[in-house]
Every structure is written in structure tokens, then in C-alpha cells.
Amino acid sequence: MDQQPKFADSQPDLVAKRGGKKYIFELKASSEGRKDRAIPLISQAILEVQLAAQRSPGAAIPVAVIAADHISNSVAEQVKRFALQNAPGVGIGIIDADGFRSFAGHGLESLNAERPAPPRVDLLARPSAANLFSDLNQWMLKILLSEEIPDSMLSAPRGRYGNASQLAAAARVSVMSAFRFVRQLSEEGFLEDKGVLRLVRIEELMQRWLASNQRRVREIPVRWIIRGDKGQLQVAVRSYLSKIEVRSSRQKRSQGARLLKAPPRICLGLFAAADVLGLGFVHGAVPHIYLEHLDPDVLGQLGLSVENADHRVDVYLRIPENPESVFRGAVQRDGVPVSDVLQIWLDVSNHPARGRAQADEIRKRVLSRLFKKERS
């Protein structure tokens, strides 16, 4: 398979020829191979590679590929079934760091490879450290910090928790997840357990959290199909959620207790969220929205399109790697979900469009008590 140069407009990850056919590949990678990560990623890859194939000079076969450290056979099959149902004309590939390859469509099955037999495990080997700032850990951290943050700027249960079980119940996570989180906080010196779980060394903890959040984020530019006034984004989000609520109510009445697929969660983010919370400091920045996973139908309902968006960006779309922390912490303002103040601070701190100035404003006006208060 010979790699070809990228063409200018669509910038696919790989253009290759094989057996007289031209293939366009779009690759999406994740650190985790869970279904709830894999399906949104393959959806995003499908959407982008279809557009790239349309723009390609000459006939081209679109191929969407996802990669992770490890993807189980069952998740790979679920991804392929999802793609076959929703994009039967697109080739699909699933690969992982173990050497596993599973392709489907357009003769790509010849690229398949089973994963090699696992090596013998050294029972004495020390397990790798858990991620202190995983998705659910960030959510639980917001809960432990929530006492110092107004209700209007962070949606989280507030209270004092005597142990991991109580924290798990408040956070709606498993007891084991909360236990691991509490244990790691304690081992790293960020938690005192004297009858109540109390955070200490908060300045250092917040800086660690901020550093973990500074990895490069993929932003998808989109544009308005019909451009409106300044408040168009909030109106579009509010209208979309209203229609979802009406549709859900009708489906529940007509289909009884049958389980319905939940629509992707959505909220304003970054500078647009700061403006809504009354903390805006940077003017003229392109607004951001968080969407749980990329869905062309949702974009259409919002009145947005990826077509020609590279040349005229109206909105940036983010697919969060930490969806539970982002969406559970979001607050409601006039029927519009808005990122909580901690999430905004994390997101804007390293943003090139005067993000540091916006983060400093949030720290001064809202988070100062977190950084200054001594907890004994």
C-alpha cells in the first residue's frame, strides 16, 4: 500500500492505492478502548472521511479507523455493527497496540490480524499508577471542591463525606471507583481522613489537575447553515433540547417502558460559557460547544455544518474525553447547559486567545477561596 501526498482542503490522515483503488483513511485514537469511547470516535471518523472522499479528486473509498492501547474483540464487533448500520459505504478499521487489526468492507479484510498470545505476567511486577485525573475522578474532585463554589457555577452534590462509600453514593459512581480515588489522593498527600474527607495542598493539586488537562484537544470547526444574530448559539441549543424533551415524552407514552437511546449531551464551553456565567473577560473569541459524541443529525438540528467550515469558522465543536465530569458538572442558565466554572478554568488556561487572562479572572473572582483556604 503506497502512501500518497495529502490534498490541501480535506487533509485526510492517509491516502493510499491498492489494487487499482484509492483509499482515504481517517484515524482517531483514544487511550481507552471502551465502547463509550469507540462509538463516538468512529462516528467522528466516518463523518470526516466521508467529507474528505467527496472532496478528493477522482473516485476514492472512505475508510474510518480507530486505535487504542487495547480494544477487545467484542467492542470491535460492536463498532463494526454500528458502522454497518449507519454508514454501509464506509470501510471500517479497528487496531490496537497489541497488534490486533480488524477491518471490514471494500476488500480490507486482508489486513486483519489476530492479537498475539499475551506474554507471561510477572506476578511480582508493580502495577502501573492509576490516573488521578480520570473522567470519574475529575467529577469526584469537583464534588470535594464544591463547598467553596456557588451552586450557580457548579452542579454537584454538596456535603461532608466520611468515607469512600458516602462519596460514591453522592457522585453516583461505584464504591470501588471512589475507594481507588480516595486511596490515591491519600497516598499522594492530597487528602486527610479525620472522620471527614478533607482536601489539603489544594494549590498543588489544582496545578497538577491543570497540567493533566493541557494535552492537545481536537476541535472541529463548524459553521452556521443560515447565520443569525449574536445569541444564535444559545437559541439553537435551547431549541434542540426542547425538541428532544418533547420527542422523548412522546416516545415514552407510545412505547411504554422500552429503553430509548439517549441523545448526546451538550453544553456551552470555554469563553462562551464564561460569558453566560457573568465571568467573560475575552471578547470576540469563537464560541465552543461540547457535544457528547459527533452526530450529523444533531448538527443539522442545531443548524450547523462542517461543510466549508475551515474557511469560515462560526463555532468550535469539542468531543470531551471526560464526558461525565463535563456534563454532570454543567449548570443550567435560561434552559441552556453551561460548563461549570472549574471546567472553564481548566479549558481556557492554556488557550491561545487570551486564555490565561480569562483563567486569572476566574481564579480571582470565584476560585480564590480554593487556593487560599487552609484545611486542617
Q: Roughly how much helix do the residues carry, as a percent range?
A: 25-40%
Uncertain segments are 1-10, 120-128
In total, the number of strands is: 15
Strand count, sense and barrel status of the largest sheet are: 6 strands, mixed
Q: What overall geometry do the principal axes of the alpha carbons give?
A: globular
> How big a fraction of the residues is strand?
15-25%
Strands across the major sheet, in which order? 1-2-3-4-5-6
Supply the number of helical segments.
12
Question: Compute the gyration radius: what is it?
Answer: 23 Å
Give the helices and strands as they follow along the chain.
EEEHEHEEHHHEEHEHEHEHEEHEEHH
What's the SSE blueprint?
Elements: E1 2-4, E2 14-18, E3 21-30, H1 35-55, E4 61-68, H2 73-86, E5 91-96, E6 101-104, H3 135-145, H4 164-171, H5 175-187, E7 191-193, E8 197-199, H6 202-212, E9 219-224, H7 232-255, E10 266-269, H8 270-276, E11 288-291, H9 296-302, E12 304-305, E13 315-318, H10 323-329, E14 331-333, E15 336-338, H11 341-348, H12 355-372
Could you walk me through the main structural features you see in this protein, from its secondary elements to its overall organization?
With 376 residues, the chain is an alpha+beta fold. Helices cover 40% and strands 18% of the residues. It is built from twelve helices and 15 strands. The strands form four sheets. It has a six-stranded mixed sheet with strand order 1-2-3-4-5-6. Helix 1 crosses helix 2 and helix 11 crosses helix 12. The longest helix has 24 residues. The radius of gyration is 23 Å and the shape is globular. The termini are far apart. The N terminus is likely disordered.
